[in-house]
Amino acid sequence: MQVQTYSRLGSFGRAAAAGAPSPPPAPQAAAASLQKGGGGGGSGRRTPAKGGSSARGSSSGSAAAAWTGVGCGCAARRAARAVLAALHRRQAVFLFAPLLYVSAMLLYMGSIPLDVVPRIIARPASGSVYRSPQLYARLRADMDADNSTDALATLWRYKGGLWRPCINNATNSFPESNGYIYIEANGGLNQQRTSICNAVAIAGFLNATLVIPNFHFHSIWRDPSKFSDIYDEDHFVKRLQNDVRVVEKVPDFIMERFGHNLSNVFNFKIKAWSPIQYYKDAVLPKLIEERLIRISPFANRLSLDAPPAVQRLRCLANFEALKFSNPIATLSEILVTRMKEKSMASNGKYIAVHLRFEEDMVAFSCCVYDGGDEERKEMNAAREIGWRGKFTKRGRVIRPGIIRMNGKCPLTPLEVGLMLHGMGFSNNTAIFLASGKIYRAEKNMVPLLEMFPLLETKETLASTEELAPFKNFSSRMAAIDYSICVHSDAFVTTQGGNFPHFLMGHRRYLYGGHSRTIKPDKRRLAILFDNPRIGWKSLKRHLLNMRAHSDAKGVEMKRPNESIYTFPCPNCMCRLNRTEHSKPNRTR
């Protein structure tokens, strides 16, 4: 008797009408049906039960009736069954589902015009775009109405006077010199100053005689000045006479060994920030052997940290031995007097701002401002002239937005004005601006002068005849700026560099260990000036907090890996006791 077989799709009887395939009967039920059908168990062959064919016919008829009632033909029914069978038997077909979906989407998108598809526009990161002109235009009316505070009178919570200079004079006699050291100081005014002071420290440490340093001519600064053009050479030699031997030139009997040609002298190529022990181990033996050595270049060739005896010589050279030459010092005193006269409304007090917005500085920063294509062409040309190929190397990627967000972009005159006005300085504040030639000054200086009409520079304070001897010498002009800034009531630095670092240290040394300095958080400024929704009151609150943070630092001590020229306490200065502190002293 033939046994009824079951399709994997189930029968299309009542179960199919119910929407689910019929499962095969349980093994016990199948065995019972075999027994009822009289099948012999010995042969193992299944035979259909009685009436089996009529049952199949009845089932097929009911299924056909069900499909016919839905309105589908036999062809549709067979197609549906074939598809369902294929899906169950070969499930790998589902791997093609994503491909079918993508194809359908492409067909759909191809039927829609591109101008109908919405565009996704990403806004630049906060602080990455120069939008200060728009901010100034929007807030100017509120700024003009808010001119009631006087930061010169209310700014300072901390005062100097707790420390005093204490560089002890040496009294020991000199042993015989180990030889002569000749160095070439490269860079601008204050980078050269670093080289001079470090050379004094090394010469004293090695018991050598220092030849007056030679200034290397640089393609950027283009200043052929000699040591005596900028510094008082006689004072320099005399102030160091008990500590370091200094001579104007190498004696002839030494130069004879080298054919009177310095290029024949052994030149040490020393790594930057080398420890003082390296000079003892590597330089001293060669010095004793040759009697004359040359070190070029010499900028930053000595580590910031050194033994106390070496640091003392650095202090002595920087704060005591280096005085500007008589022509520079004389004109500087005249201009300081004029500056105080122009600030009589604030009792002779003025603030000094160091602004680094010269063309070479803007070009080197790779920042983008509001000059468009013309600015881009000018900056590319300036970079190629000053640093040929440095910024166009293959693989180098310049990201102006990231540079601005990191606070590395020079502040524009407009941004300096916004910052100072927000910090509480009124338009009656006298300002001395220390700077080179401002990039596009005829445009960029206008908003700063609108906010602070009592702004002066060395060019406005001095006559053309007075400046003529210094006009074409960048280091001498920088020395005049430096001298006027030293005597200001407060100093504002807008960009890193040697000028503000030396100046802050010099002011600390002169004014009891604490100089009134504003050093803004330029990362924070970039975000504030790029905020299209900020109001004047909110901006001013942020800037007042920034000003208070600068003042709260008080007297700052030198920490490891910091410059003694910026932080003279405690290596160059001593703390006053209560008796000394009660005496009158000049503070800043």
From TrEMBL:
Keywords: Carbohydrate metabolism, Fucose metabolism, Glycosyltransferase, Membrane, Transferase, Transmembrane, Transmembrane helix
Pfam families: O-FucT (PF10250)
Biased composition (Low complexity): 45-61
Protein origin, superkingdom: Eukaryota
GO BP of this protein: fucose metabolic process
Ranges for region Disordered: 14-61
Spans traversing the lipid bilayer: 92-110
GO molecular function: glycosyltransferase activity
Family: Belongs to the glycosyltransferase GT106 family.
PANTHER family cross-referenced by the UniProt entry: O-FUCOSYLTRANSFERASE FAMILY PROTEIN
Stated name of the protein: O-fucosyltransferase family protein
Naturally occurring in which organism (per UniProt): Oryza meyeriana var. granulata
